[in-house]
Amino acid sequence: MAEEKAAACEYEREAVPERAWLGLKSYVGQFAGEHVAGTELMIGPLFLAAGVSAIDFFAGLFVGNLLAVLSWTLFTAPIATRVRLTLYYHLEKICGRRLVVLYNTVNGVMFTIQAGAMITVSATVLGVFFRFRMPELSDTLPTGFGWIAAVVMTGVLFSVVAAKGYRVVAAFANLVAPLMVVMFVVFGVVGFRKMGVTGLDTFWEVASTRIWTGGAPHPGQMKFTFWHVMFFAWFCNMVWHIGMADLSLFRFARKPWYALSSAAGMYLGHFMAWIAASTLYAVQLQTDPANTAVLPGPLAYNACGALGLLVVVIAGWTTANPTLYRAGLAFQALVPKASRAKVTLLTGLAASVTAVFPVVIMKLLGFVALWGMVLMPMGAVIFADYWLLPRFGLRRFIAEHARLTVNWAAGAAWLASVLFCVGLLAAFGADKIFFVSLPGWFVAVLVYVALSRWLQSLLPMSV
Asked: pLDDT tens-digit profile of 284-326?
């Protein structure tokens, strides 16, 4: 009984003890399962809809994914494996309870919306069977009762698994990850063959002239270049690595270098899977140029039949599970005495409600960039608090030591960074949303360090 209780413990408000640390295998499976996922069948086609060229697409994906792996390895995991706290409890020690309540609310809402997008992906499978009207690129509202019912049923199923805790989430990902990888390879092979690729000698010609042609984007979509692709590939997971959300996951890791396992997700998912999904969309456009709908269920069904539909369901599940788990941790941190499992179930229901509105999934690239821009500054605060403040003779975790309910240095850094990014967007255009977070990160670090020196100079020396 004691062992079962320990296994169920998620250590929401304490450092993870050594007996609960996990090996490399858990993280390889987790990243492969989470990033070789149903949303890849949305993101890949959206690149194609943005009129990207083949050279920009392939080069941008390679460089951007490498930067993402390095961000997890050099930024997130070293702090996670030294402190071993959830993101939310870690921030509470730095920022104070009241500021973290605001951050957790924003973060939880963003995670919930993203989980809803993943629920949407899997719900498209039911549309293939029951033939109810599904959303198109231009839709923002629910398209009918059938769509609503499919989304809610899918969301409830996903929420039950996420409520079981990280070990169950990781075990499920490990179980299905190999199938996901194999099936996306199959999707790519099928897509390339239908587009006319017969071997390596014809690959680049077909890729550059028939798939990623660099033409005009579809109506309502922005034009993508190498820089758009690179920064999106790097920053689509900004909340997790530079934003430090994956402190909550890597606190279980035995070694910080386990973060290199993120390459399993970046290059099998955000490289191979996006390429494969793009080819399926190219096949759809070749068959019917007027059919610009981006729907994972029909795309997979056209490629591999019923097995393709099964892959979409499982792929959406493996992505929604850890996202709902993170959202549950965010909301549970607002009410520490509440059961994390119950909070996660309620979060899943909320995600299901958001999922019936297709506006997020159809604008997924922009939403992910916005999410990173809004929450990235707190990752910069964590980085500066752990690595830089001691170099200036300042205390880490000042809110805990001084019993502050609000660390105004952290709050000002967050606000200044977001306002700086918004100012850049106002000056240079909303299509620059993929680029503004990088300079915003440096603004947050500089403001936090400068104001921390001032704030701590006002506190009693005993602090």
From this structure: 999 999 888 888 889 888 888 888 888 888 777 777 777 777 7
**Measured at the alpha carbon of residue 48, what is the angle toward residues 46 and 52, in degrees to the nearest 5?**
115
Q: What is the pLDDT of residue 163?
A: 72
Q: Which amino acid is it at 297? A: G
Tell me how many degrees the CA angle 301-200-303 measures, rounded to the nearest 5: 5
Q: What confidence tens digit (pLDDT) does each residue in 429-440 have?
A: 988 999 999 999
Radius of gyration of the chain from its Cα atoms, rounded to whole angstroms: 22
Q: How far apart are CA 49 and CA 198, in angstroms?
A: 25
Average pLDDT over residues 263-284: 93
- For the record, the structure tokens of 94 come out as 């730095």
Residue 85's identity, in one-letter code, is L
Q: How far is CA 21 from CA 84, 100, 166, in A?
A: 10, 26, 12
Q: How far apart are the first and last CA of the chain?
A: 42
Our separate counts of H helices and E strands in the chain read: 21, 0
pLDDT 10s digits, 189-226: 999 999 999 999 999 999 999 999 999 898 878 899 99
CA pseudo-torsion sign 197, 198, 203, 205: negative
Do 304 and 145 contact (CB within 8 A), yes or no?
no
456/60 Cα distance (integer angstroms): 43
Three-state DSSP at 143 gives coil
Query: Does pTM surpass 0.90?
Result: no
